[in-house]
Specification:
With 534 residues, this protein is an alpha/beta fold. It has helices spanning 2-19, 30-39, 52-67, 168-173, 177-186, 205-210, 242-245, 252-260, 330-349, 371-378, 414-425, 446-450, 466-478, 493-512; strands at residues 71-72, 79-89, 95-100, 103-106, 113-115, 124-131, 137-138, 143-144, 155-159, 191-195, 216-219, 232-236, 268-277, 280-294, 305-311, 316-321, 324-327, 357-363, 387-392, 404-408, 429-431, 456-462.
């Protein structure tokens, strides 16, 4: 009886494994969490770009890479040094007010609006305001919110988001600082005031306002100046946005109701003008990307690279929330950094090397506007034509079991198909971005590879139930870019391990494929494909 049963069991197991070979496991989530415990600890001080804390975190990364047997692939050993300029608003010497019917209505900085030092603010601005709806110019769709409006010498007020008919990637692309400003500059505008869409705000206003005087950064090289001529950039509190619309014949309530459902928005001159004075302190900052390689096994394909990237920087030390000033960035993005270290160690230990070389890229300056990856993509430390793909890992949020994987860029290139295949062999479903309004596809480092023509994607743990969706929403509201993205939060180690397996599998499959991944002919981003000479 016993024996018979045993034979039967073995047979069933064998039959099952013949039907679908069981995927091998390399990770258990423990070493992943071990790295996070180091990178998100208090003494890393939140890893701000240019800080001693980030230098310490990067030294840890380099030490782990050395121990794993990887080779340096930066411009200075494992490092690629980069120069930045930082800009910090001095609020006590700055001001903003609305001018309406001969009256001056002062705005309270922090409550009504905040300056954005992502652009180099002019010391003084006085200009009429025009509401431009979503403020999008999308030539491919013959869509132009700026058409027919007089914006010469004026400041545009826009409601963030996009109309429903606009495909997510297209809408995201034209909301980047660079593309957005290009259109406004050509229309003669001198500044932009953005009203966040209350329906899609990840972070509540009080938290946005809390760190408004924290320095912004930009790359200190003229080739990267994307906001030339932008004299004013502000974000306006949606709860106070009615102040802008007074006397225009429209209310903010009307605009927000339309924008919530991505309906078309009216566009019209506002009854008010804006006057600002801005005092900005500028400083030079130095930081570095960390880059390592695992050489490929194939004599020819080893001259090509698959990049696995993650940002190692975070927000540093800021205003306290619940008594904690350190913005630990455990999920954002010690989690991605830890994954790269795990995958690097596991692949170097494996009996067989992938055919193509792998490049492990730990970028700086992501939180400052994807700056480290922007620099790397423009000045790669390997021949730019040899980079076949980028897989980026940023805040993949294993806060519940991994049953569905959200793939940003799923339909854009062959990488999406490979990701689907690898996930499915592990019983994990895939989905495209369920929240295109959050612009995730352009909000992390993969975007800088995309605009250089390199197929790229990013993935995160998707929600499958109402309960899981609630977990994600609560995580974004309470922990995202807050000190509580720390080591005390609950994470699902088995989900993290499963996610690591998918990334490892995807990386190997892309590295071993005789053909490079390609953009789909339907993809908007195919326009960036360079002549690779292949
Ligand atoms: Zn972040």
């Amino acid at each position: 009886m016993y024996r018979k049963l045993l034979i039967l069991c073995c047979f069933l197991v064998l039959a099952a494994s013949l039907a679908q070979p069981a995927a091998e496991n390399h990770f258990d989530g423990k070493s992943w969490w071990g790295h996070i415990k180091v990178l998100a600890a208090d003494d890393m001080e939140g890893r701000e770009t240019g800080s001693a804390g980030l230098r310490k975190a990067e030294a840890y990364v380099v030490e782990q890479l050395r121990q794993a047997g990887l080779q340096p692939a930066g411009s200075d050993g494992f490092y690629q040094p980069i120069k930045f300029v930082s800009r910090q608003i001095v609020e006590k010497d700055s001001s903003a007010s609305l001018l309406r019917s001969g009256k001056t209505e002062p705005l309270t900085l922090g409550e009504d609006a905040i300056f954005s030092t992502r652009v180099d603010l002019a010391a003084e601005v006085e200009a009429p305001l025009v509401f431009v709806g979503y403020g999008l110019s999308i030539p491919e769709k013959n869509y132009d919110d700026l058409a027919g409006l007089d914006l010469k010498g004026k400041v545009a007020v826009l409601f963030s988001g996009s109309p429903a008919e606009m495909p997510g990637p297209l809408a995201s692309h034209y909301q980047t600082l660079k593309e957005r400003w290009k259109a406004f500059r050509d229309a003669g505008a001198i500044g932009i005031i953005t009203i966040p869409n209350p329906a899609t705000m990840d972070i509540p206003w009080w938290r946005i306002a809390l760190n408004r005087t924290h320095p912004s950064m930009d790359l200190a090289y003229p080739e990267f100046d994307e906001s030339k001529g932008e004299k004013l950039a502000m974000t306006f509190n949606p709860a106070h946005a009615d102040k802008l619309f007074e006397g225009s014949g429209h209310t903010f309530e009307e605009i927000a109701a339309l924008g919530k459902d991505r309906k078309p928005l009216p566009r019209f001159p506002l009854a008010a003008a804006i006057r600002t004075t801005a005092t900005v302190v500028r400083n030079e900052v130095e930081s570095a990307n960390v880059i390592a390689t695992l050489p490929g096994a194939d004599p020819k394909l080893k001259n090509e690279y698959v990049v696995l990237s993650a940002h190692v920087d975070h927000l540093g030390i800021g205003e306290p929330v619940h008594g904690d000033r350190i913005y630990h960035g455990a999920m954002d993005n010690a989690s991605g950094t830890a994954l790269l270290l795990d995958v690097a160690a596991s692949l170097n230990k494996a009996s067989e090397r992938p055919k193509r070389s792998l490049l492990f890229l730990f970028v700086t300056g992501e939180e400052k506007g994807l700056l480290g990856s922007k620099y790397f993509a423009a000045h790669p430390t390997v021949d730019s034509r040899s980079i076949v793909a980028d897989i980026n890992v940023d805040m993949f949020l294993p806060i519940h079991p991994l049953r569905v994987l959200t793939v940003y860029g799923l339909e854009e290139s062959g990488l999406g198909d490979v990701a689907r295949e690898v996930a499915q062999t592990r019983g994990i479903a895939v989905q495209a971005d369920p929240q295109p309004l959050r612009n995730a596809f352009i909000r992390s480092d993969q975007y800088n590879f995309i605009v250089h023509g390199i197929p790229a994607l990013a993935m995160s743990v998707g929600a499958t139930t109402g309960e899981e969706r609630k977990l994600h929403k609560e995580w974004l509201t309470n922990r995202y870019h807050a000190p509580s993205d720390d080591l005390n939060q609950p994470v699902d180690l088995s989900a993290a391990a499963a996610y690591e397996e998918v990334v490892r599998g995807l990386l190997i499959k892309v590295a071993d494929d005789s053909a490079r991944p390609e953009w789909k002919s339907s993809s908007f981003f195919r326009r960036y494909e360079r002549a690779t000479g292949q």
